[in-house]
Amino acid sequence: MWRVNHFDVSADHPERAMKFYEEVFGWKFEKWNGPFDYWLIMTGDPKEPGIDGGIARREDPNAHIMNFIDVPSVDECSKSITANGGKIIQSKQTIPGVGYILIFQDTEGNVLGIMETDIKAK
Q1: Helices and strands, counts by H and E, the chain
Q2: What is the pLDDT of residues 76-116, one digit of tens each?
Q3: In the chain, what are the domains?
Q4: What is the C-alpha separation between 56 and 110, in angstroms, rounded?
Q5: pLDDT at position 30, please?
Q6: Longest CA pairwise span in the chain (Å)
Q7: Cβ(114)–Cβ(88) under 8 Å?
Q8: Alpha-carbon distance 114 to 118, whole Å?
């Protein structure tokens, strides 16, 4: 069984959004050292139930909070998604040093992501 392990927040003004989430929920943020502007979100004690996420500048005006499901293989899972009536919205992308992601739509129109961890991804 695969679980949601990460969420992404899209923001027109990431600094304003980070201030909001820090003030309201006490979340902490750390700049990611990667090839694009991205801040990691720590939502609480890692020993307690819950997931962490990230925040980036909104590139698509229709972007919203997206949950990512951890899978062993994006390629294999994408085949299962389409075989079971889902639709690939954004094909496999590489995130250097992190792994691979893909965005899909389920049979009910919900949009989610899948993520395959691979620290050697380039």
Answers
A1: 2, 8
A2: 999 999 999 999 999 999 999 999 999 999 999 999 999 99
A3: 1-66 (3.10.180.10), 71-122 (3.10.180.10)
A4: 21
A5: 98
A6: 43
A7: no
A8: 13
Model pTM score: 0.89
CA distance 11 to 64: 8
Q: Which residues contact 73 (CB under 8 A, 6 or more apart)?
A: 116
The identity of residue 86, as a single letter, is G
pLDDT tens digits, residue range 32-56? 999 999 999 999 999 999 999 999 9
Structure tokens at 59: 């590139």
The string over 85-121, giving b where at least 16 C-beta atoms fall within 10 Å of a residue's C-beta and e elsewhere, is ebeeeeeeeebeebbbbbbbeeeeeebbbbbbeeeee
Sheet holding 87-95, edge to edge: 28-31, 39-42, 53-57, 4-11, 66-70, 111-117, 99-105, 87-95
